[in-house]
Sequence to fold (704 residues):
Amino acid sequence: MSQYTSQFAQAAEAVTQNTDHRSFLQTALRGYQKVRANTQARFTDWQTARKVAAEVKWEAIENLDTHLKNLTERLEARGTKVFWATDGKEAREYILSVIQEHDAKSVVKSKTMTSEEIHLNDLLEKEGFDVVESDLGEFIVQLNHEAPYHFVFPAMHLKREEISHIFHEALGTDETYDPEELTQIARRVLRQKYLDADIGISGANFGIAETGMISITENEGNARLTTSLPKVHIALMGIEKVLPRLEDLSLFLPMLATAGTGQALTGYNSMIGGPRQEGEIDGPEEFHLVLLDNHRTRLLADPEQRDALRCIRCGACLNVCPIFKNVGGHSYGTTYQGPIGSVITPHLRGLQDWKHLSQASSLCGACTETCPVKIDLHHHLLRNRRNAMNEKPKFTERVMFGGFVSMMSRPWMYRSLTKTARIFDRLMQPLQGSWLDPFRPWRKTRSLPPVAKETFKDYWQNRQK
Amino acid sequence: MIPCFIDQLFPQVGIRMVEIFERLGHEVEYPMDQTCCGQPPFNSGFQDEARQVAVRVLEIFKSAEVVVVPSGSCAAMVKVFYPELFQESPQEEAAKELAAKTWEFSQFLVEKLEVTDVGASFPGKVTFHDGCHGLRELGVKGAPRALLEKVRDLELVEMGEAETCCGFGGTFAVKFPQISTAMAQVKSNSAEESGAEYIVSNDASCLMQIQGYLDRQPKNEIRCFHLAEVLAKNLDKTE
Ligand code: SF4
Fold:
């Protein structure tokens, strides 16, 4: 068992015991589902929209090289510095070198999961920079020294009182349970940070190949400030975020908003095509785009699961996932939680270390049903299980299924097992629920029916007589 | 086709299904050699093992006109996953043929036989649990409800979490028992809120999970039944 497996199992178990937390989470997500259903109904035909979106993303991924070339060439023509990072280390080092080059002291960030993926903050803080997250949710979890709980709603696990307490401890503000006031506190702190910051770091929701622009969508205006006030803007973008045409945004922006938060459109949508151009009055002097591979090309090389690169990180699959709703976001121990995380983390960080996430699923398919770009999520979990077993079969399971096959291939053996099981059932009765009970994991919380006195086979046989 | 756990743990489900078909005037055959469809190894990632079991199923049901399964999960295994499992193998065609003639029980009644009223009566308030494989792999949603609505004295109520997984998921239920149990709790609470006295489903495995959980709750009056059991209730009365 990998260390990640036991961490997951322990964390998940703790959350399942925490009824309060689970019902808090489930109530919040029920609210999301309701709002989202209403917004979805405003589409002429949501199912067709999904199909079109899947096709557009398919086209983008199948011709990723061309689209990325177009995107970067057009950005470079307007003075953007583009850096291709093979992995997290290269990306981190490049970003650090840019910051050092400018003799910068403080960095303001808007929400970017890609930077979480490469653990950028850890490095920057270690190097002594003042790094502040400007997205409200990210700001809260940063003050609380924890990882985002959900890649769209980073602080969704915290109640108002808890947030107030975090602010009180970290910023010395008065306790208040009023959401308005809490937002105001964050706003006051952050305003000054924008003004002081030498460097702004953002992510990118989409990269438009046709026009050479990145698109950022958000609700607080913080990304707009992060990308335009500091002298230098660095955007970090996964290579799969590319879209062929500008007009594709007319589908993807409302779709991302609908699936992500249930909004028809998010509050602020920005397009960035380069640093400040001559004659322009605002914008950064320098704009860097860091394109991150970090094993995405591994997924690209897998024709069976390549469609996972279509993901627009809307988070909808988490919001409907019964596993997520009962184990919460932190249990996963990954940057990307929920079904999409369980599908791609084995590709990004190693199959053997992360295969347990594919096993921790009832394969119910709620994720696949909801995904706006129609990624075959729950079947990919099955494929990960298969690949993991082919690569390194678990000895006990192999023996077990070997026995299973030989029994199921011989009807007489199968029937004699029925008899043995009946006797076993009786013999085991006094031991039920004890450590000697092989069904203990089941019986601890659930009853188990005994083998029937007359099986269907017995019934049919008697009938034929 | 009678799934192995129905054979061993819930034979009455198979028996009731046979009764219903015979009452409708159909001839039912049961090949005694059948055992399991191969889903447990398949879902655990052991595809070679699954194929070895599945190959027998292809053979055993080759001559059948239609194959009906009282389980959305096992029907999905045959209809959806067999063609994938045997892709580019000598059995590819056989797998596709079997997939095409295999039906989940309620869908078969409503869509193929076009029967919704089987003549049953069942007094009580019932809520239907959508088994995930039936619902999302096969699109079973309306059929069981259409059948239940025609059952005399039965009041059908929907629960908020009808489409939410019960947490069974095969080996998942033993590998991650706490998560699985937490899911059963969500399901059971939702059924309780609906005011139902009975939870009915087309998957006995889901019902084993939900009933298993309910049995351990101090104050519980909800009982689980398979759809076939409800549809075979008091058939004679209406003759
Ligand atoms: S996999 Fe689909 S539903 Fe999940 S985050 Fe990505 S786009 Fe959204």
User: Anything to note?
Assistant: The mean pLDDT of chain B is 94. Residues 4-111 of chain B form one domain. Chain B has two domains: 4-111, 116-237. The longest strand of chain B covers residues 121-129.
